[in-house]
UniProtKB/TrEMBL annotation:
Highest rank taxon of the organism: Bacteria
Pfam families the UniProt entry points to: 4HBT_2
Full protein name: Acyl-CoA thioesterase
Family (UniProt): Belongs to the 4-hydroxybenzoyl-CoA thioesterase family.
Length: 144
């Protein structure tokens, strides 16, 4: 995807603790960037995650994470992670994420995260409710 395909970005500056012996971001930190960005994306949309869990007894569980590394991210780099929803299934949400240089079209990686909505009492999948579906709107899903 292109940078212009994302309407939400979250900024990071690479910290020394995130790099490895080669001086680049250690691979596991990409998932931390993705997770933080999804949390901030929901916050930007006005979704109260903790209230959702308390009120419904449901929560999301990660079932798939994919990172395609395209070029290394170095210490002290200013980066932005773009996030969007590409699909909402009966019980799942698929997020597409890409990391760019801050304010640049240059891309470091692409990723996909899939969550499944789960009833916390039974540990069985549960349908994604209409409130969550409405957060993303038809336009975002149709643009992918």
């Amino acid at each position: 995807m292109a940078r212009s395909d994302f309407s939400f970005f979250y900024d990071f500056r690479v910290r020394y603790s995130e790099i490895d012996g080669q001086g680049v971001v250690f691979n596991a930190h990409y998932l931390t960037y993705f997770d933080t960005t999804i949390t901030e994306y929901f916050r930007e949309l006005g979704f109260d995650y903790r209230a959702y869990v308390a009120q419904t007894g449901q929560d999301f569980h990660l079932v798939k994470s994919l990172v395609n590394y395209e070029k290394p991210i170095l210490f002290d780099a200013d980066i932005q992670v773009g996030c969007r929803v590409s699909n909402i299934g009966w019980t799942s949400i698929t997020f597409l994420l890409e990391i760019f240089g801050k304010g640049e079209d240059s891309r470091y990686c692409t990723g996909e995260i899939i969550w499944v909505n789960t009833d916390q009492a039974t540990h069985k999948t549960a349908p994604v409710n209409d409130e969550i579906r409405a957060l993303f709107g038809h336009s975002e899903l149709a643009a992918t």
